[in-house]
Amino acid sequence: EVQLVESGGGLVKPGGSLRLSCTSSGFTFSNAWMTWVRQAPGKGLEWVGRIKSKTDGETTDYAAPVKGRFTISRDDSKNTLYLQMSSLKTEDTAVYYCTTDPKTVGTTPNYGMDVWGQGTTVTVSS
Amino acid sequence: DIQLTQSPSFLSASVGDRVTITCRASEGISNYLAWYQQKPGKAPKLLIYAASTLQSGVPSRFGGRGSGTAEFTLTISSLQPEDFATYYCQQLSSYPLTFGGGTKVEIK
Fold this sequence. Notes:
The structure holds two protein chains of two kinds. Chain A is mainly beta. Chain A has strands spanning 3-7, 10-12, 18-25, 33-39, 45-51, 60-62, 70-75, 80-85, 94-101, 120-124. The termini of chain A are far apart. Chain B is globular. Chain B has strands spanning 4-7, 10-13, 19-25, 33-38, 45-49, 53-54, 62-65, 72-76, 86-91, 98-99, 103-107.
């Protein structure tokens, strides 16, 4: 069974740091492009960023609100994706989901994000 | 960044109703659009990709249409009790990927 399990969420003060993890199983993680999506309380979905596979250069892209503060990385030996968050702000409070990137952005055929974790909650508050 | 405008933001309907949700893109995205369903406390679930292709396992009462900068639509032909949820469109034309604001479908 394909599965993603996030962990590492919690309460952190503004300006603090936190590292989220996403452990995968049931598919070849090293070939996958991986994405973080977040959802603030009562709000919609927001794409946070993506990391390509090592084969494709491990390139990262980030949404403007988190660029320079968040870093996505991966450890293929552990089938694990990470999101290192620093200089946290209250507006970073959200449920953070990891999901697979379909690798087909802007191309045909074009697929959606079909595997999601259950999410981990990050609360930034003093 | 590509903006997606979703409407309505809230929809009240009865079991058996036909409902349509609309998503408009700020620029051309070909058919690079997906639709997701999200229930409270759960992760989003992919329903449709490439604007009109049903994800495996999704009931055929769900349908999608649209292309380019035209109106994209998600239609539920006969609303079932398990369909009451929030629905999001997402463009997969270019990074940063963006989502519509969501449509909450509630029981009338």
